[in-house]
Amino acid sequence: MSDSVRRAERLQRLAQLEGEVVDCFRCPRLVAWRELVAREKRASFAGEQYWGRPIPGFGDPDARVLLLGLAPAAHGANRTGRVFTGDRSGDFLFAALHRTGFANQPTSRHADDGLKLHGAWITAAVRCAPPANKPTPAERDTCLPYALRELELLAGVRVVVCLGAFAWDAALRLLAASGLALPRPRPRFGHGTELALGAPAPLLLGTFHPSQQNTFTGRLTPAMLDDVLLRARELAGC
């Protein structure tokens, strides 16, 4: 089988996975919340049609770097239909991705704004907006098979950038679910922490989440996030 045929089959399977994610109703609490938010809109978005469904991954299917977030924002991705799009966290993240050469533009306003990623793919540990931005362990584990299949289909990924402690823990669970043995005790999250388990496992790289709680207080600065993304690019060889 030629490389072009294998790639076409992989793209088809990614599209199939996207369809399954978007049609998911497995977590009743999350379904109820995402739909409630989509009906009772924030006043500043009252004239917009909310997406109100699970959020699939987005980016370059030949990515060597995967960015793993926590979950969609209620009035961000749950509104726009694209991960990290339409909220302050996304504004901070995509500006950094543009500065470090992973994105063709520094902003992400809506799903049809022309944004393209180069060498990177963005996804979330939980695909639906959770109440108070806090998924339960059961909801995290229910979503895990989607991330596992996604990682398998993104065959070129060499580095997983974990956006926050929740994503770090989810990434460890993801690697364990793929059959890899993890160190004991499990490595703790930290900004700039690297975990290399050896091929074929991707290297994990931690960064504070680009939430307003971190960016407004200076816990995470643009330079700090740029450094992590440039390190990811170096480690991934892209």
Write the layout of secondary structure elements.
Layout: H1 3-22, H2 28-39, E1 58-59, E2 65-69, H3 77-80, H4 88-99, E3 120-124, H5 137-153, E4 159-163, H6 165-177, E5 194-195, E6 203-207, H7 212-215, H8 222-236
Parallel strand pairs: 2-3, 2-4, 4-6
Antiparallel strand pairs: 1-3, 5-6
Word description of this protein:
There is one protein chain. This protein is of the alpha/beta class. The chain has one domain: Uracil-DNA Glycosylase, subunit E (3-Layer(aba) Sandwich). It is built from eight helices and six strands; from the N terminus they run ααββααβαβαββαα. A hairpin with a 7-residue loop joins strand 5 and strand 6 (203-207). Helix 1 (3-22) runs antiparallel to helix 5 and helix 4 (88-99) crosses helix 8 (222-236).
